[in-house]
Design brief:
- Pfam families: GMC_oxred_C, GMC_oxred_N.
- The protein is an alpha/beta fold.
- The chain has a single domain, classed as FAD/NAD(P)-binding domain, CATH 3.50.50.60.
- Helix content is about 20%, strand content about 20%.
- It is built from 11 helices and 22 strands.
- Helix 1 packs parallel to helix 7, helix 1 packs parallel to helix 11 and helix 5 packs across helix 11.
- The model has no long low-confidence stretch (mean pLDDT about 95).
C-alpha cells in the first residue's frame, strides 16, 4: 500500500527546464515545492573531462532507458505499432535537468505568426489555403502577451545574440553579444547577402562572455569545445536547469527534489487533483504526494502518457477529430539539408559549439508569399559550427562507394572540408497524426506505453523540397566543389534516423475547451489545479527550436499557479 506523505503547495512531475523555472519562481515567493524526478541527481562535476563521444553521443548515456519505458510507433491506423527499441529519430533525456541538459543551446522565440497561425493564414490566403485534415489552430495567446516572459527567459539564461535584420521580424535585445564569427559563418553570411537574403548570428544559450543573471547566478563564457548536443556542459557556459534555476530554488529552502522516482498517476476527484502516486525505483516502494497544485512538467511524450494513464482530459479520437489529449502531435521537418564539399581550403570543423552558427529567416513563417506554394509556414536555413566529432561525422560526395579505398581516401580528404546547411522546417498538425495508449505493450510498472501514429504529408515533402533547393543555392554560392542536395523524394517518416528532439503537441493550449486541453496559463480546463507547461502545449511546431518558447510558457504558468494558489478557480 502506498505511503501518504505530508501535503505541499506544489508538486512537479519532472525537473527539467519547466520544473526548474516553476520551482525557482514559486519558492522565491515562499511556496513549498516538491520536485519528483525519474533520473538521478546531477551537477557540473558529473561532466568534468567527460568528452566521451562513445558513451554520450553514441550510447546515449543521458537518455531514458528504453528497456523500461519507450513508445510504440506506426505510420497509420492500419498498421500494428511496434516498440522503439533503440534511440533514433529523437532522444528523451533522463535525470535532473532532463533534456535541458543535453541540448545544443539554440534559443529562438516562435514568431507572432505562430501563435495566431489559423487567423493569419485565413486573413492572407483564405480558408481554402488550409488543406483538408490539417488541424492548425490559434494558441489562445499572442506574441505580444508572451513577450515579457520571453524576456525573462533570455535574462535568466543569458542568451547571446543579435537582432534579426529581416524586415518585420521581432527585434529582440539580447543580454549578451553574439558568439564568435568563424570562417564558416562568415562565408555563409556573405553568400546569403550576395543572394539578397538577411543573415545574422544564431541566438545562443552558450555564453559569449561571462554573465551574471538577475538571480545573481554567474556563469563563464563558452570554451568552444564542440561537446554540446548529447553532453552536459562541464563549464556551465551552456544554460541548463542545473546551473541556472535549480540553485535559486534550492537556496530558498522551500524546494525538495526526489530523484529515482517515477510518477505513475495524477490522483484526482470531482474535477480537482489531490496529488500524485509515484514509485521509488531503488526500493520499489510507492508513495502518495498530496499537493494543492500538480504541475505536469516532464518531457512532452511523458506528459501525454501521464494524463492518459491518469484519465485526465478527454482522449483524442482521430476518426471524429474530437477529444484533446493526444491531439496535434507534431515533430519537425529537417530533411532539406545541403552538404557542401570544398577541395581548395580546409576549415577547423572539429571545433565549435552547439549554437555557434548563422542563419536566414527569409523563408521562415509567413515572411514570404505562400500564394503559389503547396505548403504553409517554412524553415530557418542555417549553418552551424558545432564541432564535428569523429565517430558520427564522415561525409563524402554523392557517388562515392560506401567502402573501400576511394571511400577511405575521400573520408580523410573531406574530414575538415565538409559543411552542412540545414533547413529546420515547421511541422503542421494533422487529424491522423496523434498519440494514444498502446493496447498491447506496457512499461516496467505495467502501465500502457504511448503509441505514436505519424507520417510525413505532402505538406512536409513540398516544404523540404523547396528548402533543400534554397540551402543548395547558398552552398553553391559559398563555393563548394560538390553539393549533396536534400529534400528530394522524401518517403515515409523513418524513426530510426535522428532529426531532432523537438516533439510537440498532445496537450495543447487554446481558447476553447472543445479543441484544447489548456488555457493560456497552461491550466487544464478539466482539472483546475493541474498545470501542464512544456512543448506538449504547442498547437503546432515552428521552424525554430522549441526551448525558448517552452521557457516563456513556463514563466507564464508560474505566474498562473501563484494566482491560483491565492484565489483558486479558472484563470481565464
Amino acid at each position: 500500500m502506498a505511503k501518504q506523505l505530508p501535503k505541499t503547495d506544489v508538486v512537479l512531475v519532472g525537473v527539467g527546464w519547466v520544473g526548474g523555472i516553476i520551482a525557482s519562481e514559486l519558492t522565491k515567493k515562499g511556496k513549498k515545492v516538491v520536485g519528483i524526478e525519474r533520473g538521478k541527481e546531477r551537477s557540473t562535476k558529473d561532466f568534468m573531462m567527460a568528452h566521451d563521444e562513445l558513451r554520450y553521443a553514441e550510447r546515449k548515456g543521458m537518455m531514458q532507458d528504453l528497456s523500461k519505458e519507450t513508445v510504440t510507433f506506426r505510420h497509420n491506423t492500419k498498421q500494428r505499432a511496434l516498440p522503439y527499441r533503440e534511440w533514433g529519430s529523437f532522444l528523451i533525456g533522463d535525470g535532473l535537468g532532463g533534456s535541458g541538459m543535453h541540448w545544443n543551446g539554440q534559443t529562438y522565440r516562435f514568431l507572432p505568426y505562430d501563435f495566431e497561425i489559423y487567423s493569419k493564414t485565413v486573413e492572407r490566403y483564405g480558408k481554402g489555403k488550409i488543406p483538408k485534415g490539417m488541424t492548425i489552430q490559434d494558441w489562445g495567446i499572442t506574441y505580444k502577451e508572451l513577450e515579457p516572459y520571453f524576456d525573462k527567459f533570455d535574462a535568466m539564461a543569458g542568451v547571446s545574440g543579435e537582432p534579426n535584420p529581416l524586415p518585420d521580424a521581432p527585434q529582440v535585445k539580447y543580454p549578451n553579444p553574439p558568439m564568435k564569427e568563424t570562417p564558416v559563418t562568415e562565408l555563409f553570411k556573405q553568400a546569403a547577402k550576395d543572394l539578397g537574403y538577411h543573415p545574422y548570428h544564431m541566438p545562443s544559450c552558450n555564453l559569449s562572455q561571462q554573465y551574471t543573471n538577475p538571480d545573481g547566478i554567474t556563469r563563464s563564457a563558452c570554451q568552444y569545445c564542440g561537446f554540446c548536443e548529447r553532453f552536459g556542459c562541464e563549464y556551465g557556459a551552456k544554460a541548463d536547469p542545473v546551473v541556472t534555476v535549480l540553485p535559486v530554488a534550492k537556496e530558498t529552502g522551500n524546494f525538495e527534489v526526489r530523484t529515482h522516482s517515477v510518477v505513475r498517476k495524477v490522483l484526482h476527484k470531482d474535477g480537482k487533483a489531490t496529488g500524485v502516486l509515484y514509485v521509488d525505483t531503488r526500493t520499489g516502494e510507492e508513495y502518495i504526494q498530496p499537493a494543492e497544485v500538480v504541475v505536469v512538467s516532464a518531457y512532452q511524450m511523458n506528459n501525454i502518457k501521464l494524463l492518459l494513464n491518469s484519465k485526465l482530459g478527454t482522449p483524442y479520437d482521430p476518426a471524429t477529430g474530437r477529444g484533446v489529449i493526444g491531439k496535434n502531435y507534431a515533430y519537425q521537418t529537417y530533411l532539406g539539408n545541403a552538404y557542401g564539399f570544398f577541395d581548395e581550403k580546409e576549415y577547423n570543423i572539429f571545433a565549435g559549439a552547439g549554437a555557434l552558427g548563422a542563419q536566414i529567416d527569409d523563408f521562415n513563417g509567413d515572411f514570404f508569399d505562400h500564394t503559389d506554394m503547396d505548403f504553409l509556414h517554412g524553415a530557418t536555413i542555417h549553418i552551424t559550427h558545432l564541432g564535428d566529432r569523429p565517430i558520427a561525422n564522415n561525409h563524402v560526395p554523392e557517388g562515392t562507394p560506401s567502402w573501400g579505398r576511394e571511400f577511405k581516401d575521400k573520408s580523410v580528404h573531406y574530414a575538415n572540408r565538409t559543411m552542412v546547411i540545414k533547413a529546420q522546417g515547421a511541422s503542421m498538425p494533422w487529424q491522423d497524426n496523434y498519440i494514444d495508449l498502446d493496447p498491447t505493450y506496457r512499461d516496467a510498472f505495467g502501465d500502457p506505453l504511448l503509441r505514436m501514429t505519424f507520417n510525413w504529408k505532402d505538406q512536409d515533402r513540398k516544404l523540404m523540397e523547396f528548402m533543400g533547393g534554397k540551402a543548395a543555392e547558398i552552398m553553391k554560392k559559398m563555393g563548394a566543389t560538390h553539393v549533396n542536395q536534400g529534400g528530394k523524394n522524401i518517403k515515409d517518416y523513418d524513426i530510426r534516423n535522428y532529426q531532432s528532439t523537438h516533439n510537440t503537441g498532445g496537450v495543447i493550449m487554446g481558447s476553447d475547451p472543445e479543441t484544447s486541453a489548456l488555457n493560456n496559463y497552461l491550466q487544464m480546463w478539466d482539472c483546475e489545479n493541474v498545470f501542464v507547461p512544456g512543448a506538449s502545449a504547442f498547437a503546432h511546431n515552428s521552424g525554430y527550436n522549441p526551448t525558448n518558447t517552452v521557457g516563456a510558457l513556463a514563466y507564464r504558468a508560474a505566474e498562473g499557479i501563484e494566482k491560483y494558489l491565492s484565489k483558486g478557480g479558472s484563470l481565464v
